[in-house]
Every structure is written in structure tokens, then in C-alpha cells.
């Protein structure tokens, strides 16, 4: 499964990069395949381990912010691994044609 999620602290002002870094740090320390871009962090693994990482990432932000917003999108496809890379590779292959 791949989960793309965004954790946003509310009530802390406009500069939220420090708070978001706390969440991304949790993801990177998890050891699961992941990728962060300007809008979302994607993480790949089994349901329980991915959801645990999301929960802990939210908790890291929640520890310092009075309110937290979570946006989550999941691709639940049993038996597929390395989706973070293979999905992008497929698109790139089609673009190169």
C-alpha cells in the first residue's frame, strides 16, 4: 500500500516548515520507502506499519501545535511492492516515447 499524506499544524502562523519537518523525520526514521515533495509525503508498506507511521507523524506535530489537519490518500493494492518507484518509471517510459 502507498499512502500520500499531508500534516499541517494550525494556529502556529504561516511558517510551518519546522513542524512539517518533525512529521517527515518520523517517516524517514521508520525505514519504510518514502518520498516527500512540496505537497505530500508518500510512504509504502503494509497497512499496519504505514498507518502507525502516519499516526506517529501526526503526533509529532500535535505535540507542538494546538490543532492539526491531516489529508490522506491511499492506494491499497495487495501484492504490489516498490510502487513508489515503479509507478513513476511507467509514466516516464510513456513520456519518453
TrEMBL record:
<dbReference type="InterPro" id="IPR029756">
    <property type="entry name" value="MTH1187/YkoF-like"/>
</dbReference>
<dbReference type="GO" id="GO:0005829">
    <property type="term" value="C:cytosol"/>
</dbReference>
<protein>
    <submittedName>
        <fullName>MTH1187 family thiamine-binding protein</fullName>
    </submittedName>
</protein>
<comment type="similarity">
    <text>Belongs to the UPF0045 family.</text>
</comment>
<dbReference type="InterPro" id="IPR002767">
    <property type="entry name" value="Thiamine_BP"/>
</dbReference>
<dbReference type="Pfam" id="PF01910">
    <property type="entry name" value="Thiamine_BP"/>
</dbReference>
<dbReference type="InterPro" id="IPR051614">
    <property type="entry name" value="UPF0045_domain"/>
</dbReference>
<feature type="domain" description="Thiamine-binding protein">
    <location>
        <begin position="3"/>
        <end position="92"/>
    </location>
</feature>
Amino acid at each position: 500500500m502507498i499512502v500520500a499524506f499531508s500534516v499541517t499544524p494550525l494556529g502556529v502562523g504561516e511558517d510551518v516548515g519546522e513542524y512539517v519537518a518533525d512529521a517527515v523525520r518520523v517517516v524517514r526514521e521508520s525505514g519504510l520507502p518514502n518520498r516527500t515533495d512540496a505537497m505530500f509525503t508518500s510512504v509504502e508498506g503494509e497497512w499496519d506499519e504505514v498507518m502507525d507511521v502516519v499516526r506517529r507523524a501526526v503526533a509529532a506535530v500535535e505535540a507542538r501545535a494546538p490543532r492539526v489537519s491531516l489529508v490522506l490518500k491511499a492506494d491499497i493494492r495487495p501484492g504490489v511492492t516498490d510502487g513508489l518507484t515503479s509507478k513513476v518509471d511507467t509514466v516516464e517510459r510513456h513520456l519518453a516515447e
